[in-house]
Design goal:
By secondary structure, the protein is mostly helical. The chain has helices at 5-28, 35-81, 106-112, and strands at residues 83-86, 89-93, 99-100, 119-120, 128-129, 136-137. The strands form 2 sheets. The protein has a 3-stranded antiparallel beta sheet. A 3-stranded antiparallel beta sheet has the order 4-5-6, with no helix packed on it. Helix 1 (5-28) packs antiparallel against helix 2 (35-81). The protein starts with a helix and ends in a 9-residue tail after the last strand. Bound molecules: zinc ion. Zinc ion binds at residues 105, 107-108, 116, 130, 132-133, 135.
Length: 146
């Protein structure tokens, strides 16, 4: 989640203020203004408006990214409510309230706020690995799926 959205909007508003100032100058301008100066002011105006458009497009992208992050966090939050903890590991909760399958990686939950289910390795039963951070855990209890 980037934090520059507010800055982009503030920047867009500042440039928009300048553009409005230029437009106001042009409206109030004396008819005696020469064509070259008028053209230069118009070029300033177009340039300012193009900057505003770009800043708003950036801000829109940023808002989209934030929406995505929010829905992801909400999904994780809902997922957490459907879990049950055993020996410090979080498992998916079966219909009867008991844990089922292998637990999720506590390290990834801590560091990323995401849930990755640990996978049994070729080693002894209960020796599992996280598919994401590759952490190894031993003596991890697995429960039957129901
Ligand atoms: Zn992990």
């Amino acid at each position: 989640m980037g934090g520059y959205c507010m800055v982009d909007i503030a920047g867009a508003l500042a440039v928009l203020g300048q553009a409005i100032g230029i437009a106001k100058d042009l409206r109030e301008i004396d008819r005696g203004l020469d064509a070259g100066e008028f053209k230069a002011r118009m070029a300033d105006l177009y340039g300012s408006l193009a900057d505003v458009k770009m800043a708003l497009a950036d801000a829109q992208e940023e808002l989209k990214a934030k929406d995505k992050a929010i829905s992801e966090l909400r999904g994780n939050f809902e997922k957490r409510a459907e879990m049950v903890e055993r020996n410090g590991f979080k498992y998916e909760k079966a219909a009867d309230g008991e844990p089922q399958g292998l637990p999720f990686c506590p390290r990834c939950e801590q560091n990323l706020g995401r849930f990755y289910r640990l996978a049994q390795t070729n080693g002894p039963r209960g020796t599992v690995k996280c598919p994401e951070c590759k952490s190894d855990y031993t003596h991890v209890q697995g429960f039957n799926w129901r």
